[in-house]
Every structure is written in C-alpha cells, then in structure tokens.
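Hi there,

I know you've been waiting on this one. I reran it after we fixed the sequence typo, so this is the corrected version. Both the input and the resulting structure follow.
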Amino acid sequence: MVIFMRNFFIPLAAFLLPVSVLAADLDRSYQADIGSETRPGSFSGLYAGADVGVGIGTAGGANTSGYIGGAHLGYDLQFSRLMAGVEIDTLSTSISAGSFNSSEFSQKFLSSLRGRAGYIFGNVVVYGTGGFAYSTSAYRDVSGISRATIKGTAFGLGAEWSPIYKISLRAEALRYDFGSKNYATPLDTKTLSSATNLLRAGVHYRF
C-alpha cells in the first residue's frame, strides 16, 4: 500500500505544482496584455481530441503498468471564470501485471464518462473531474484465459491551456477504481480487485 500510494501521489504532486505555477504566470501575463480588464479565455462548446500517457496501478496485490492512447469527446459550458461540462473517452492500453505465479492480468481498453468543473485563469482552466469507468480485462494461466468487463469510478485533476484559438493542450492525473471480479480458468478461480492511475497529455479542437 505504501509503495502504491507513493507511485500515485508523488507523480500527482509533481504534476500539480508546475501546473499551478504556470496557471498563475499565464493569468498575470494575460491580465497585463489586456490592461485593467480581466476577461477569461473561451472554453465553451463541443470538442474532440486525442490522449497519450502511462498507467500504473495494482491488480490482486500485484503491480500493473503500461502505455495508453486514445480519443475523447466532450462539451463544456462557461460562466465567466467558471467552466462545467461532460466528457467521454476510450483508451487502448498495454497495462498488465508481471505475474501471479505463472499467470497474468491485463487490461486492453479503458473508458470513462465523467463530469468536469473548473476555474479559468486567463487562457488556462484548472479542473476536477469524476464519473463512471469500465475496462476490458483478462486473467491468463497455463490452462487458459478468462475475460471480463470490469466497472467502477474515475476521478482526478487536470489543466487545459488554449494557446491558439479553438486548439487546447491539456495534462491530467486520473484514477480508475474497479471492484472485485471473478476469473475462472480450467485449473483455477481467481478474485481480483484492480485500480489504475493515469498520467496523460492530450490535445483537442473546439468546434
């Protein structure tokens, strides 16, 4: 548990500190450029884009890791400096556990449907997000393979920067929590609980 918390919260802290500093610097620069006005940037409307990153976590007490890549689609509403919206994403992954005594756990796809809410600093919005998640998973041993779809929750923090009109860059730290699931092969039945933490970067276009 200690190693797991260190693997998640240290990268999260390392991610949030520079993001908060960048947001403050950009806000000051933005306000300096427009004089005494404090108009926020535009973060409203339909958007679509792509993400890449890494995942680390646990499954049945074993460490998991791998790369992720996929797409997202969302819609935001802006109220002065406040932003709220909804997003759906789907990711292909290579996340797997090293071994369970000659057996293996893996995840091939991760998806989530989440709400987003944040505060706008100039042309940067810092936000929290949370909702539902599911993943395809598999447990394999020497006798065969058992596949299952696992469901749970997804939540995290992120920051989005819009340096060019309609184009946004973003970085996110997300946690996917899944409940227990039974996997049955000809020689064994295994009950595994899994959780996956993502650090990812993305880009999208607002229509």
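Quick highlight: Confidence is low (pLDDT under 50) at residues 1-9, 19-24, 26-38.

Best,
R. S.
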